[in-house]
């Protein structure tokens, strides 16, 4: 069992290195269909499932590193973004987010209709809290649980559902990157709006230097630390806008500003951000435990029904509106995952569109509590 935080991080980085080298070698065709970070997610989750990680000893290191790297990664990814191009994508992105959130809330109602007879009398309160989490984030979930006074034992079950299904959903979303072209052909989506005229790829052809790498690394980590400090000093707004939300917002705005200047053309930002992306995914995956599937089975069934309804509605929506997979995947992740994972998924699809992930996540952060309460109210009338 690994009890040393440094060994834990080193192992994740070593696995990432093997996967990146294997993927770039061209010898393994599987990497053409499944991105390397999907394998990292699976390997890290399996290692945790077999009990390799002592979370009492390493969680502090992993969580601390993730808190430090996430703002830095978002900042670096935004260096190659042109906010004017994001604005030109139009209001359809917001419509996609609204449909996504509505499909999840409808999924909870359908799931409760099907399985409510096998659930505890006040299970609708806990499911309402889970609804808040899957349309916003953990802060929304806690807020709804507190407002509705959901029973602690039932709330514990939905926490398991949240952890297990979120892990599998994130794995599925990451895997979908490899089939995005096929999906877009199926929906006949117009992806030309995502072609930013070489704004990104052209800059990556510039050679990296020691000064560019160390300058970017030092700057990104310093900004991450200062943004986190500033986030702690800013006032919380309700129960959903907290220090973490402020931190992400600060680095996002700064990254967009830098991206419109010559400083955004510094070579190496993409490579550094990718390294951070792998580490963050590894840390997230190391908290997944597949053995939890054996607990609270009826609530897991309810959660699976929610996701199935969500998938069906989004597939129909994508086909009817000719929507590309990127928008669907990031909107879904922003709802079910939240502000920590939406920008990561957006970066996996197209790093020039990380602001879309941040935007979606912030909208979910604002609306999740209200959607959870609304869903709970609807479920309470079923019986």
Describe this structure in words.
- The chain has one domain (79-269, 287-380).
- It has helices at residues 5-25, 36-49, 55-77, 83-88, 92-115, 123-134, 138-148, 152-176, 180-187, 201-204, 210-233, 243-259, 269-285, 297-321, 325-336, 342-349, 354-380.
- It has 17 helices and no strands.
- The protein is an all-alpha fold and 383 residues long.
- The protein starts with a helix and ends with a helix.
The biggest sheet, with number of strands, parallel, antiparallel or mixed sense and barrel status, is: none
Tell me the span between the first and last alpha carbons. 47 Å
Number of domains: 1
Task: Please tally the helical runs, counting DSSP H or I stretches of 4 or more residues.
Answer: 17
Query: Per DSSP, what share of the residues sits in E-state strands of 2 or more residues?
Result: under 5%
Could you give the topology of this structure?
Layout (H helix, E strand, L loop, with lengths): L4 H21 L10 H14 L5 H23 L5 H6 L3 H24 L7 H12 L3 H11 L3 H25 L3 H8 L13 H4 L5 H24 L9 H17 L9 H17 L11 H25 L3 H12 L5 H8 L4 H27 L3
């Amino acid at each position: 069992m690994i009890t040393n935080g440094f060994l834990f991080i080193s192992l994740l980085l070593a696995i990432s290195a093997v996967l990146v080298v294997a993927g770039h070698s061209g010898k393994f065709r599987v990497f053409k269909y499944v991105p390397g970070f999907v394998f990292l997610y699976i390997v890290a989750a399996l290692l945790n499932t077999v009990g390799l990680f002592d979370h009492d000893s390493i969680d502090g290191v992993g969580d601390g590193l993730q808190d430090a790297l996430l703002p830095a990664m978002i900042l670096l990814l935004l260096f190659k973004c042109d906010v004017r191009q994001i604005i030109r994508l139009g209001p359809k992105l917001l419509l996609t987010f609204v449909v996504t959130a509505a499909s999840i809330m409808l999924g909870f109602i359908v799931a409760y209709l099907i399985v409510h007879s096998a659930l505890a009398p006040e299970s609708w309160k806990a499911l309402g809290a889970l609804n808040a989490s899957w349309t916003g984030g953990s802060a929304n979930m806690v807020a709804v649980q507190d407002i509705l006074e959901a029973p602690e034992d039932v709330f514990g079950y939905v926490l398991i559902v949240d952890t297990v299904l979120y892990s599998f959903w994130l794995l599925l979303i990451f895997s979908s990157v490899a089939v995005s072209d096929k999906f877009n052909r199926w929906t006949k989506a117009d992806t030309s709006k995502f072609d930013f005229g070489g704004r990104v790829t052209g800059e990556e052809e510039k050679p990296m230097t020691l000064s560019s790498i160390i300058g970017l690394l030092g700057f990104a980590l310093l900004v991450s630390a200062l943004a986190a400090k500033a986030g702690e000093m800013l006032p919380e707004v309700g129960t959903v806008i907290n220090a973490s939300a402020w931190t992400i917002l600060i680095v996002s705005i700064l990254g967009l500003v830098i991206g419109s200047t010559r400083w955004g053309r510094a070579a190496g930002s993409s490579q550094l951000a990718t390294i951070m992306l792998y580490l963050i995914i590894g840390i997230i995956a190391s908290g997944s435990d597949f053995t939890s599937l054996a607990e609270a089975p009826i609530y897991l069934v309810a959660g699976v029904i929610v996701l199935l309804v969500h998938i069906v509605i989004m597939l129909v929506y994508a086909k009817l509106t000719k929507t590309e997979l990127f928008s669907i995947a990031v909107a879904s992740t922003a709802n079910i995952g939240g502000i920590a994972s939406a920008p990561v998924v957006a970066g996996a699809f197209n790093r020039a569109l990380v602001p879309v992930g941040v935007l979606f996540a912030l909208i979910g952060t604002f609306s999740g509590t209200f959607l959870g309460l609304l869903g709970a109210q609807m479920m309470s009338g079923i019986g």
